[in-house]
Amino acid sequence: MKFAIIGVLSLLFIAFLVVLWKAAKEWRWYNLVAAVFTMILAIVFIFPTAGALKSRSEWHKIKESLEVRTEETLAQTKALKFGDPTDPSAGLGAIELAQQLGKLGIEAGRRWRGLQMTNNNLQSIQLNQAAPPVAPGIAADPAAAAAPAPAGPLIPDGLVVYGFAENTIQGVQDRLPTFFLGEFRVTASTPTSVTLTPTGPLEAGQQQRITGGQAGFWSLYELLPLDAHDPFIADGSSPDDDNLFGRVDDQLVRGLLGNVSEETLQKYLRDGGRSTPADPPLSRWVKIEFTKNHSIEVDSPQKTGALEGGFFDGNGRAVDSRLQRGADGQVKFKTGDRIVLKEEAAKQFTDIDNVARLVDTYYLRPLNDYRFVLRRIRLRLTELAIRSKELDYEADVLNAAIAATVAMLTTNQKEKLKLEQDLAQTQAEAKAIREYHQQLQDGVKQTRERLVALYQDNQRREQQLKKAYAAVLNSAQ
């Protein structure tokens, strides 16, 4: 291509010379000079023009690549901000995640993470703000390290906070709160440290973790965290027919709840899975599919605030304007729409109204309200402690009664041995007495027989004497 262009230019130059030679007879000298000068300028400006065209071509390629990159960047920015509806595995957008984070922040209140315990005195626990952990292979930010510390206290004095022990979980980079340490009041606070005092007696397990150094890092919460299903779902898992929320992260659940009973552990592992007939009614949720168009009135005609008349009326319709749907106050469902609701509520649509059909049943772990759960646990522990003291007293009484019974049995055993000896002696004496009595009876019998024989002999002799006496009298007369 280069040689072809050079050949064409050479032909044009030769043609110019021929034309100039032919026109030399008719043109004046200034015409020839102008033509020659124009040709020289044309030849000279070919090279800048070629350079400009080449540069323009390169810049055009750069412009096209930048346009492609701009479109890709705009698409990525849009996907990052709003998410990608065509790719569920890409996750949620930054706006929705920010909304969820803001919601969690409102529900959780203020929180302070990564506080290192330096004093394990139960009546005056001191925590210092530790440096945030740095991921392996990533250098620390010098600007963040050089940033000045805030001038105010780390936590306001007098604030009641809830403490959790932080531990590392396998597969998770940051330390996570894994054990509830109790309720505390802030007694002193500086920009980098805070001193805590328990608001009430701590449990034995909490005291052991604090004094034993097992709670090296703390998390403090202004409000108790709310229970939810999503935190235990594995990253990248999405809902399907077998898992209502997605696949539960077995490793995370076992790492966080390693000390609970197997029954409680199974509640977290089965959360969102298919239900069984043995599951309690409160944990059975049903997925239904509407077979007809249906609408439900959810707004109450009453317009009152929550402080005046509550959030809902007697029929369950919203009376607080913040909860009302607005417009016509109805939720409308089309044929084919699917929703998940409690089993008792699903019967209204499937059995009574007959506008939907049963698709599947799921087990949903009942969520815990820790504000009341911890209070009930504390009251229950207090009741158990009182009951334990009562049982200890009753056990002492029973042990004393058992000891007295054992002593009585020992004494009675001795008395029994003596009575047995007396019985044996009495039986021997009774036998001797019976034998002696028998001997006396035999002697009396023999004596009586002899007396009877003697009496009869005396009677006989008396008769003989009477006869002899009579004979003597007769002979004397």
Biggest sheet features? 6 strands, antiparallel, barrel
What is the approximate shape?
rod-shaped
State the separation between the terminal residues, measured CA to CA.
218 Å
The secondary structure category is alpha+beta
Task: Report the count of strand segments.
Answer: 11
Mean pLDDT: 83
Strand fraction equals: 15-25%
Radius of gyration: 56 Å
Order of strands, widest sheet: 1-2-5-4-3-6
Helix content: 40-55%
Descriptive report:
This protein has 477 residues and is of the alpha+beta class. The chain has 10 helices and 11 strands. It has helices spanning 2-23, 29-82, 94-108, 142-146, 204-211, 250-256, 262-269, 306-309, 343-352, 370-476; strands at residues 111-121, 124-129, 160-167, 176-189, 193-198, 217-221, 284-290, 294-297, 330-333, 338-342, 356-363. 9% of the residues are buried.
Keywords, separated by commas or semicolons:
single chain, 6-stranded antiparallel β-barrel, rod-shaped, 3-stranded antiparallel beta sheet, 50% helix, 16% strand, 477 residues, alpha+beta
